[in-house]
Amino acid sequence: MAVDYAVIVLYLAGMLAMGWWGMRRAKSKSDFLVAGRRLGPAMYSGTMAAIVLGGASTIGGVGLGYQHGLSGAWMVFTIGLGLLALSLLFSARIARLKVYTVSEMLDLRYGGVAGIISGVVMWAYTLMLAVTSTIAYATIFDVLFGLDRTVSIVLGGVIVVGYSTLGGMWSITLTDMVQFVVKTIGVLLILLPVAVVKAGGFAAMKAQLPGDYFAPLGIGGGTVFTYVLIYSFGMLIGQDIWQRVFTARGDRVARLGGTAAGTYCLLYALAGAVIGTAAKVLHPHLGSPDDAFATIVRDALPVGVRGLVLAAALSAVMSTSSGALIACATVANNDIWARLRRGVGRGRAPVDGTGSGAGQAAEGTHDEVRGNRVFILLMGVAVIGLACALNDVVEALTLAYNVLVGGLLVPILGGLLWKRGTAAGALAAVAAGGLTVIGSMAALGVLANEPICYGLSASLLAYVVVSLAGEPTDAAVLAAWRARLAGTPEAAGAPERQAVAAGAGAPGRAEAAAVPSAPGATTTPPSERA
Q: Looking at residue 392, what is its pLDDT?
């Protein structure tokens, strides 16, 4: 195993070196949080694919293939479908908003009253996503080095927190691009064909396994439907995904690059299921389906190559973990701490045409790169601590996804698609959906399929009824929103900055009232996200 160990150690050292190099490029808040909004199509698509395909998609996807056959691809497949929908339908609009967080988008759309509630919900989701990704280090380092669970989590977590803290999104982007290449070579080009050949080919696999292993819905139609609700819709609204959209150089990059990443996810889903099916033929009596990946890598691959493929699994975990970590820190700093520092009642600082988001009014009085770097470090320490303390990662992640989708999907998509939606309706939707999901999970179990359905229904009903029952959103707020969506931040930003400089009004409706409608701005439904 000495050669395999050397490959892994070199890989980890390379990640830290990338972090150090990225630090030299992170000169501003925009550089640190969204890579300066300068990524081209190749780097954008590679890093987007890296963040959505984590340990659950790699180790878990192979495990589902081991347990259910080809239909085990559905979990990762729905992630790809969600990314495609995001890219084709919404990404260009999202990129044009020039914000940093989902809550900033809600403030813009509803007049600065989305409040701390949406930030807390998104923070809880990104925190649990980072925790569950970090726990996966225990499995990988146990296979590699036989390390204790806690030591494994701390080792993997420290490396990710290290390079993320150094260079922010630039470091994460550079490491994710390397991880995407390693993952593609290790899983798609090496492990997939080797596993099929070792299992005797598809004909032998069909002969040795039950017919359900090759049925499209062998995993169960209800399970597939739940995957769509949780993972496809989760891709549409997660801060970790949106923050990658914000890195795109323009609308075209966001649409085309995201479409390429989504298509890659579909191929990756099928590859994981096939590898898992082959592992079932080769090792039919494993204690846990999640052991299938490490077992087939250990037994089917030669020395050196085995280290590369295990590095691919490690890269999958690290890419998701780092993306979730910077998303968690961004929300904590920009949506929660900045608002608390100003006073909850005062709302968010105005968002100017440069997309500076919350806290921009304070720029120049403190080092925003340093502030965000501190928050990544603090959130990283919290993530490592929680990862060491928690055991049931599936329930923790399911809870986070259910609350996220049940509480925020309707007000986010409603804000993009329905101009009659109001701030009161959005807040009612968050409360009704979130409370219904939590109550249903308490009654039926965290892993039950029904809570997300009940939560979305309650959220939609509350959003529509409360929005129609109240006054429409202020025309000036909608005019400012349309100006941003039309890609004319100068028109939207200049009056805001003038009002702030003159000491005018409180944020929210007051600043928006000073913003004229952009010529030609429309409210037609979006058709972008790649």
A: 63
Between CA 432 and CA 221 the distance in angstroms is 27
The separation between the first and the last C-alpha atoms of the chain, rounded to the nearest angstrom, is 41
Sign of torsion over alpha carbons 102, 103, 108, 109: positive
Residue 114 confidence (pLDDT): 64
Q: Phi and psi of 115, rounded to 5°?
A: 75, -175
C-alpha distances (whole Å) from 34 to each of 53, 164, 242, 445, 524 are 20, 12, 10, 37, 27
CA distance 384 to 68: 32
Is residue 268 classed exposed, middle or buried when 0-12, 13-18 and 19+ CB atoms within 10 A define those classes? buried
Q: How many C-beta atoms lie closer than 10 Å to residue 407's C-beta? A: 31
Q: How far apart are CA 71 and CA 148, in angstroms?
A: 34
Closest to 331 (Cα-Cα) out of 128, 79, 60: 128
Between the alpha carbon of residue 74 and those of residues 62, 68, 81, 184, 353, the distances in Å are 11, 10, 10, 19, 41
The list of the chain residues with pLDDT below 50 reads 345-366, 489-530
By 3-state DSSP, what share of the chain in percent is helix, strand and coil, each rounded to 5? Answer: 80, 0, 20
Contact 318, 178 (CB under 8 A): no
pLDDT, position 359 = 40
- Please state, in angstroms and as integers, the Cα–Cα distance from residue 270 to each residue in 98, 237, 386, following that order: 35, 25, 32
In this prediction, residue 254 carries a pLDDT of 93
Contacts of 528 (CB under 8 A, 6+ apart): 87, 88, 89, 90, 91, 92, 93, 251, 254, 255
Residue 432 token pair: 């009704």
What does the radius of gyration of the chain's CA atoms come to, in whole angstroms?
23
**Do the beta carbons of residue 3 and residue 302 sit within 8 Å?**
no
Q: Locate 116 and state its tokens.
A: 């701390």
In 3D, which of 167, 134, 161, 173 has the Cα closest to residue 51? 173
Distance of CA 337 to the CA centre of its chain: 21
Cα distance between residue 338 and residue 299, in whole Å:
52
DSSP tag of 304: T
**pLDDT value of position 55:** 76
Phi/psi-derived region of residue 396, left when phi > 0, alpha when psi is between -120 and 50, beta in every other case: alpha
Instruction: Tell the residue number behind the tokens 């809550």, with chain if given.
Output: 103
Q: Taking the alpha carbons of 339, 131, 280, 293 in that order, is the dihedral positive or negative?
A: positive
Global pTM reads: 0.81
Q: How far apart are CA 474 and CA 478, in angstroms?
A: 7
Q: What b/e sequence results for 137-168 when a residue is b if at least 16 CB atoms lie within 10 Å of its CB, and e otherwise?
A: bbbbbebbeebebeebbbbbbebbbbbbbbbb
Q: Please report the DSSP string for 392-410 in residue order.
A: -HHHHHHHHHHHHHHHHHH
Of 253, 293, 235, 260, nearest to 49 by C-alpha is 260
The token duo for 275 is 């590898």
> Who's near 45: CB < 8 A, 6+ residues apart?
256, 257, 258, 260, 261, 264
> Per the structure block, which two tokens stand in for 313?
């699994």
